[in-house]
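Need the bound structure for zinc ion, inputs here:
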Amino acid sequence: MNPCPACGATEFIPLFEKNRLPICACRICSTAFVPDPPSPEAFKDYYSLDYFTGNHSKFGYIDYAAEEPFQAASFRHKAERITRAMGGGRILDVGCATSSFLMQLGPAWKKHGAEISQDLLKAYPPPPEVSMWTGDFLDYPENGEPFDVVTLWDVLDHVPNPKATLEKCWRLLRPGGMIAINVGDRGSLFARCLGRRWHLYIPPTHLTFFNRSSLFQLLKNCRFTPQRWEYEGRWVPLSLCFFRLSYIINRTFIRKLYEWSLRSALRNLSVYINLRDVVTVYAVKA
Ligand SMILES: [Zn+2]
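Answer from helper R.:
Posting the output first, comments after.
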């Protein structure tokens, strides 16, 4: 069994099974995780186009490209915060999908993206102002100019090795550079109330389930100094709400509601949701 992905401890408590995969919690830092994560090949295969286009068994998106305006609205605040703090420079968005975050940044930024899904980039080619790199982020070339900012939106809970991912970011950043991350917080009130039914316990899509203090510890271990924590909401289409709700309440009427919302004129009605169970942290390379 692998050690805890956040603190490296080797003592665990078995929690429960979800999607036929066991989830354990670390006795030291309470990070929960899938003890036997998929191989890098299986991981790559998982993010084929259907992940972004409504394969219900993959817990992804209904139509990522159509949801873009909502993604953009949710990313605007993050883009403003980073621009206020850093001004501009070279930025790398890891797991950038259709570049919706990068496109919220102004001309002061040289925009770079890393995306594992070749399928997605084939179906939705990146905008010309984004320098795109495709592959497993751990293979991202390290011989270029250092970055001023690296962002990981909805990424760290997906990757098989969060520590190696943060160490990679550290090497890619200049001293004083910023890293910005968001992850689900299993220590949040909402997650604790829902227990195993929490909508972010979705292995093998999510493999690590942090809490705020375990993410803090991991960042410190990787030589980052956390500076700011936020619990932001996001804009989501109504249909995606029902899609995700069907993971919490696995009942026919929720599936029916979801199917109805896809056909209905309300499909693209957006709602602002903040369950305070997703934490964003801004940290600097010490
Ligand atoms: Zn731990």
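Comments: Residues 47 and 117 are 6 Å apart (CA to CA). The chain has nine helices and 13 strands.
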